[in-house]
Amino acid sequence: MWKKISFYLMVVVLLTSSLVLAGFISPRLIPANVFMEGVDISNLTFEEAEKKVKEEFVEIYFTSENYHCSFTPEEIGIKINYEESFKVFQNRNLRELIALNFEKTELYLQKSFDMAKMDQFLHILSEEINVPSQDATGEFINGEFVIIPEKAGKKVNTGLLKEMLTAQVLKKCYSIPIEKEEPKLKSKELEKLKPDTLLGEYTTKFVEIYNRTENIKLACQALKNTLILSGEIFSFNDTVGPRDAEKGYLNAMIISGGKFVPGLGGGVCQVSSTLYNAVLLADLEVIERHPHSLQIDYVPPGKDAAVSYGLKDFKFKNNTPGILLLDYEIKGNYLTIRIYGSSVSAQ
User: Fold this and answer.
1) Residues 302, 331 contacting (CB under 8 angstroms)
2) Is the pLDDT of residue 4 over 80?
3) What average pLDDT does the structure give for the chain?
4) Roughly how many angstroms between the first and final C-alpha of the chain, as a whole number?
5) Are 117 and 166 in contact (CB under 8 A)?
6) Tens digits of residue pLDDT in 149-186
7) Are 168 and 162 in contact (CB under 8 A)?
8) 8 Å CB contact between 273 and 337
């Protein structure tokens, strides 16, 4: 028995000596068959291996069907600790070093993550790639409701991409996970419930002052052909948006602090008040409505709807089983707003 043990010890010693003499085992060299994040670092010094791996991950590439870009690991929010990564070879005994020569060994870089920076990177990437879906819509042309088909969109699956980036393996190139974004309203549904029946309309007269008239036109254009699905709540502020100079709104008289003063977007309240009266005639559910602090003369008392972006809104709910469409017409100094619904809604 002791002869067998001595024989095996002799084989190990001879094999070890051979490997050392052949250069397979050296305290200065990484053994054979060793890879770091897929990069072959066999038989390199630690300095050579670190340089080779660093060069591999100077930039990380991202690709999708029509988009290609690259970022440094730091820009993505990945910090690589190369010094700690190569400490894996320290304190290895001779037997472990021998084993590394005969079995493929895959090692991983020591990484830490700046999640705020990674979220910022994912946001930038999404802004470049995302294409919002477009619902089917329609408009009246020569008295006939014409449907404009929907368009599917696409968006980056940021949650999945973040999981890929924070996984154990760091890749040289990532395929960006893209999801199809389906429209909420499709042509088939719109055709079935198309708003081709007038439910309510209201007309108000306005003073033809250039700035005020332009503001009224801008707000009406934002409302035109707005579709409201059954059960949805319409928000005037969300639909029209801020009344600021960037959107082309001009100074005209507004009510502020209980008196008339010049302000951006003066005249828009006539649009919301005209719409409010059309909503009442269409027997729709009013969710939010505010009166003016002063009497106005384009609608009867108590029939106005004051709006101020971020402060006062006018909201109503589509409580019909069909789809609603908003439209307007300006003739001279008369504004008419019409609400159309599906024939099923008028029954």
Assistant:
1) no
2) no
3) 88
4) 102
5) no
6) 999 999 999 999 999 999 988 999 999 999 999 998 99
7) no
8) no
Task: Look at 10-24, 66-80, 100-114, 132-146 and tell me which has the smallest mean pLDDT.
Answer: 10-24
Spatial contact of 68 and 60, defined as CB atoms under 8 Å apart: no
CA pair distance 39, 104, nearest whole angstrom = 12
Stated pTM of the model: 0.68
Q: With contact defined as beta carbons under 8 Å apart, do 37 and 109 qualify?
A: yes
Distance CA 144, CA 146 (A): 6
Long-range contacts, 128-134 (Cβ 8 Å, 24+): 128/67, 128/69, 129/64, 129/67, 129/154, 129/155, 129/156, 129/176, 129/178, 130/154, 130/155, 130/156, 131/155, 131/181, 132/181, 133/181, 133/182, 133/183, 133/184, 134/183
What percentage of the chain has pLDDT greater than the value 90? 63
Q: What is the dihedral angle through the alpha carbons of 6, 10, 16, 18, rounded to the nearest 10 degrees?
A: -170
pLDDT, tens only, 214-233: 999 999 999 999 999 999 99
Distance (Å, whole) CA 270 – CA 250: 15
What is the 3-class SS of 231-296, one letter each residue? CCEEEHHHHHCCCCHHHCCCEEEEEECCEEEEEECCCHHHHHHHHHHHHHHCCCEEEECCCCCCCC
Supply 89's token pair: 């070879």
Residue with tokens 């690709």: 63
Q: Tens digit of pLDDT for each residue in 66-107?
A: 899 999 999 999 999 988 887 776 666 666 666 666 778 888
- Rounded Cα distance between 26 and 29, Å, is 5
Q: Whole-angstrom Cα distance, residue 118 to residue 74?
A: 9
* Closest by CA position to 307, among listed 259, 253, 267, 258: 267
Nearest Cα neighbor of 253 from 242, 262, 240 is 262
d(C-alpha 222, C-alpha 219), whole Å: 5
